[in-house]
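Lay summary. Proteins are chains of building blocks that fold into shapes, and those shapes determine what they do. In this project we predict the shape from the chain. Here is one chain we studied, written as its sequence of building blocks.
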Amino acid sequence: MIDKEYILLFITGVSAVFSVAGCTLERNFEAEKQESAVIIQSQGSRADVPYVATPPQVVDAMLKLAEVNSKDVVYDLGSGDGRIPITAVQKYNARSAVGIEINPQLVQESLAKAQKAGVSDRVDFLEQNLFETDLKPATVVTLYLLPDVNFKLRPKLLKELKPGTRIVSHSFDMGDWQAKRVIRVNATTLYLWVVPEIIKTR
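And here is the predicted shape, written in a compact code that computers can read:
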């Protein structure tokens, strides 16, 4: 016959184990939620997109593909050392250009380069997450990000950019949004989209 004290101790022990396990699961769930929030907040940051400088001939090809002219406001998302915004104003006479960059060191480097090039009155660099940037003033947007970032950025581009705004991406497309033009420059593929008058939704 099993002693009543033994049964009581057994039940108490099992309850304690499940209680501890429940606390552990709850803590793990909270940790996962916090980790997910951090990942979501950092999407599109330069920390998720390694900085690789765009060669000058590709910079030229991107701006030519977008047909940048004196009426344009160019936004470069993930602007690195600032070469695309500076070239857009200096060589293609864009009305103004803005570089969006999450890395403060690169932002400072870009500002110094714009000053040295004599275009700081028409070129600015902002230390921002590109998903939090107001893109409405842009008439041209340039990108050198990653496929998943491009895809997540697409709804924002279509929502905020005016019809007729040109978007040029270095190397990566935007899923099933078919590019208007695709060209090759040396070993690099460039994609051009134009924001339509009517956005088709499924």
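What the prediction tells us: The longest strand covers residues 188-194.
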